[in-house]
Amino acid sequence: MNTKAHNYILELDGFKRKNKQRKFWFKRVSKRETRALVVMRKELSTLMKTTKRIRVTRFPQDHYCCEEISLVIYDFLRKIESRTLSYEHVRENLENVFYIQDYFETSVPHSATYMALMIAELLTIVEEVANLLEEAAGANLTRWSWVRQELKVRDKVEPLDPQNMIPLMKNFQQEKLLGAGGFGAVYKAIFGKTVCCTVKLVPISKFKQEKHACVDKVTASVICHPFVVKYYSTFTTAQAYVTVMEYIRGVDLHKVVKAEGGLDEASSRLILFQLGEAILHMHSRGFIHRDVKPSNMMIMPGCRIKLIDFDTVKISLANFVQRMSQFYFERSAHEFRDKETAGTVPFLAPEVLRAHPYGRAIDWWAAGVTAFNVVFARVPFRGEKKSKEFKDLVANAPIPYPGERPISPEMRQFMEDCLVRKASHRICSTNEREFRDHPLFVELDFAGLYAGTHHHELESITAELEFVDDRWSPPGVKAKEDQRVTIEVNELTDTENQCALFTYVSPAFQNCIRKAGRRGGLSQRDRDALETDPGESPFDAVALDPGYRFEKYTLEQNTRRNLRQRRRRRRE
Question: Across residues 437-451, what is the average pLDDT?
Fold first, then answer.
């Protein structure tokens, strides 16, 4: 038995013991306080109906806050159903939503206030049962009425006007077509006469449900990472949904892999580290990508990559808690039970193909298939999504490593750690340090990769690019006959009918919009400031705090009796 399997058995044994203990605590509470649990369950279900409803008057960050509250409620209800709800679940989930509110407080005050109001309502519903669970477990009681005072609800928050957040189409100049498909077209354009950007156009008729049209906007409004594509703005014109993104001076990784017939290990190692860091960031912010693959990765000279395409993203419970979260990792393998199968067939995890519960671990399976593809220029398994033979192949067959191309033990180990059939055994299902401490990456300069100073040249990347105005740039394309482009940037007309849910602008780009409006154009300095706007880095993150955020609001054991007596008197 290898070390990883042995550690997993120990962790599983510990989890079973802990779960048994939680069931015992819950049983004590449910016997004595059935009414409190029934009321809490009913009120949570009512609140969930409100938060889960999609409203087009909410901005993407507001929608994100609603989704996170909904997922917390869903987690509580599931734990009540399984009779395993504990004070630890309640504490950690409430800490998490408080940290989300902190995250928006400085950048998006409107959403922070929106979140604070929902947290206050959630606290009112759960505080009695939370104290009962703490009492049953012998833990110090949290005074939730004091915790509520931490919520930052601003009396005066300027209402956002979508119309004032968006750029005018006259400030865009279309340069060339970068790609076209069934969903629309992607162009290189110039904004404010100097800023290169990528403009994605999707005809309004293509989306029939708001949740499908808004998911990429919601993701873009929260994600901020150097290895993930940056969204500048999303808005609506009379003809199309418009997404303005950073202009990536690179090429689809799939093309490079195909041209090379598989990449050398030094290049592959750099690519896979950046991909893993992008996945970790998305997961911590509460997003499962669901379509990780080489064609959704852009590679630039120096082997720097960007993960793109948020169209199939699934919003999951985020992890803003500034310490190792036990329940966050418990959900890695089976957070959802909706049987959705979004993604590209050869990259789908076994649990998705079999319509079993799934979670963030599906992205790590896809990362394993991507690693295999990058090295060997093929995928390990092929077949039809609904084919029983293909499902059995993915679920049971050994990984078919090509014998003609040897790989290092570290690379093979990484593939095997990702391509584990049992999702709860997969890499990063119990600890995200499993990725950063993996033997494949021990010699990498992590800080240099984040700073953009660590490079590894690969000729096949620049072979796919053009060198224009002293900079690399992807060439334009011609649409295929069956992909006739019916919409262009220059043909779009502004509309005053902006939908808040589809409207987002990054702070840096909003500054550019203001300057373009005043001056009629942007300077080179403005362009450089936008393009070098830094993403978040784990090396700049706040140091992990092992403590309970609300420890200062807890009461010592000897005060619990007084509270219990006071509660009895209130009932009488």
Answer: 92
